[in-house]
Amino acid sequence: MKSMEQELLCPVCKDIVKQPIVLPCLHSVCLMCASEVLVQSGYPQPELPPEPNSPASTPNTRSPRQMRRPMPKSDRVDRLLRSGSGTYPGRRRKEGPPLVMLFPCAPCGRDVELGERGLADCMRNLTLERIVERYRHTVSLGSVAVMCQFCKPPQALEATKGCADCRASFCNECFKLYHPWGTPRAQHEHVQPTLNFRPKVLTCPEHDQERLQFYCKSCQMLLCSLCKLRRIHTGHKIAPVTQAYQTLKDKITKELNFILSNQEMVMTQITQLENAITQTEVRVSAKEQLSHCMKEIMALLTERQTMLDQALESSRQRRTEALANQVAEKRSLVEHAGLMAFTQELLKENDPSSFVHAARITHNRLAQSIESVQRFSLSADPSFRHFQLDVSRELKLLTDLNFIQAPLAPVIDTQRTLAYDQLFLCWRLPQDSTPAWHYSVEFRRRGVVPGGGRLEEVTGTCAVIDRLEMDSVYVLRVRGCNKAGFGEYSEEVYLHTPPAPVLNFYLDSRWGLHADRLVLSKEQRCARSVPGLSLLQAADRALTSCHLTADLLVGDVAITQGRHYWACSVEPGSYLVKVGVGLESKLQEWFHLPQDMASPRYDPDSGHDSGAEDSSDSPPPFSFLTMGMGKIYLPSSANSHHANANYRESGFTNGNGPSSPAGVTYPLPPRLGVCLDFEKGRVTFYDAHSLRPLWEGPVDCSAPVCPAFCFIGGGALQLQELVANRNANQTPVRRVTIQSRVTKLN
């Protein structure tokens, strides 16, 4: 039991708590310590109860007649706490806003708001007091004999009983005297003799003598029957305190049993922590590496200093030599010295031929000397002003010299990240992050604890994850690594895989496309409709009968079995684009025998473009969804009710008002997904970004079925590229193929 003494210490005085109160942060401190902390913080001195071992009024100061008066029933400590210790005497009600007390809680490391009443709202921790009393009795701390408070000194005897109602300790004789049989006092509760009497139960700090019988789960606080009626607790989950007691006790018992049953794990972790502390204290390798790096820097600086000193000394010698030569030349021009004396002797020569032969060089020297005198300048700069070092950049580098930090948490690029045939994850590092050598990507299925995976040493800022389960949500996160180790993980991103294997196909250009209206890209994955001259020529007919020409485009794949999924994106500025599936034979028949499509203002069918209005029992040969002008039209039918309801729950609203039997319109999603179940003869359209179903309907699957796209007016669409083909340089030659059933994404 001695090992739990740490749990009984007051965080302020570091001693075993006395008369502990519970702060709003749920930490317990001594009442006197809390009062001293508030006074040191500049708050008024609150009124405190007297010390337990010095009662304000003892039976020794009262007569037996006075002792027969009924004792006060309220707890003195609680009554004094409720007497306004959070305010100062004389404070008026209308003197401004109430004083809010802040208590600096040491365990929390922050200020805790006590409120206007201060310590008056903090209830005593009676449970902790009982634990402290049992602890003292067990370990014999402060085992001082409790004397009877009714015996007259010096004949006072040791107390043998205590009375919780009288809040006093008695010897046997005094107890019988003051608790006679047949009186109400004989029913008082007997306890062990003590100097610290506490109330039997907790009472409300605001409503005197009201027991705390309820617990508010929303506010996480105890309530009395009057506090329960307050407006602030309207709509809160309030339970009886006995129920809260049993629930909390069961939780604590379960948590205690779990910890006790995993003692080996705890001891293993303690050993690991002790080893880590030992390694931290040693830190020899890191210190040696630091010393080695600093020595290398100092050696490089010394070497560089020597080289610069040599360059400076060499320049000084050259300049000194040049200036000395110039001085010698000038000295030769002084009278009776050097060149002047030689010239005077030369002028004494009378033989013309000899004079001319010897005087020409002297003439040249004199001319140079005259020019040097007239244009005098130093032959070398003695200031060395060009030998200045700019070390600002180096000083900044040395100032920023520090231990390398691990990379910060990467930021996921949600615009490029997607789930299709494979998971494609992109990220980037924050601007103030240190570079990363490589990355580690962690992924797992949501709701499945085992079975997670990890990609180690990813060198780029994107990763591809394959071999995934269909129609599953994967949780992914990434972290960087450099010489300092791994950094923090990024925020988790959730990606929903398609509900069926991804079907890879290209737009078929062999059906005789109208080159003047439809243009395919080189990769055959993007199509654009340009109405051009044909629409202009049909202007009269369009204005009079409201008819436009429809251009059909199909995929180069025919499906005969299984479930398949594909996605495409429609340009928001498109006039009208229909995306769906249809029987290959019917589509070919429709294409080779083109007909004018009705304007979107005319609705000849049931609303889902089925093409089968003559028979409601047989499924339609094709099924389309219509998109245009930034909207998507969802037909209203019994088959599509569930999907439309899910889409409305996703937060989208109908742009044209409330739903009607004719259908509703929603904002166009960035990508549209199509899932065909050949065996069931059902086609489902999804918002490919969130995998939320938009609409579901029947389609005739008695023969091969092809993906189909229809353009009315100008528009463009692009098929979703496979993640596996992102790095492919060439587009393979495609033919009409039959897809086999697969169980996983390719």
Structural features, described:
By secondary structure, this protein is of the alpha+beta class. Helix content is 27%, strand content 22%. It is built from 15 helices and 35 strands. It has a 7-stranded antiparallel sheet. Strands 26-22-33-25-27-28-29 form a 7-stranded antiparallel sheet. Strands 14, 15, 17, 18 and 19 form a 5-stranded antiparallel sheet that branches. The radius of gyration is 48 Å and the shape is flat. The protein starts with 19 loop residues before the first strand and ends in an 8-residue tail after the last strand. The relative contact order is 0.06. Mean pLDDT is 77; it is low at 50-94, 542-547, 594-615, 638-660 and 728-746. One of its GO terms (cellular component) is axon cytoplasm. Residues 199-241 form the B box-type domain. Residues 406-500 form the Fibronectin type-III domain. Keywords: Coiled coil, Metal-binding, Zinc, Zinc-finger. This is Tripartite motif containing 46b.
**What distance separates the N and C termini?**
63 Å
- How large a portion of the residues is in β-strands, by DSSP E? 15-25%
**Biggest β-sheet description:** 7 strands, antiparallel
Specify the number of helices.
15
Widest beta sheet: strand line-up: 20-21-34-24-30-31-32
Helix content: 25-40%
Name the structural class: alpha+beta
Shape: flat
**Model regions low in confidence, pLDDT < 50 over at least 5 residues:** 50-94, 542-547, 594-615, 638-660, 728-746
**How confident is the prediction overall: mean pLDDT?**
77
Q: Give me the count of strands.
A: 35
Q: Report Rg.
A: 48 Å
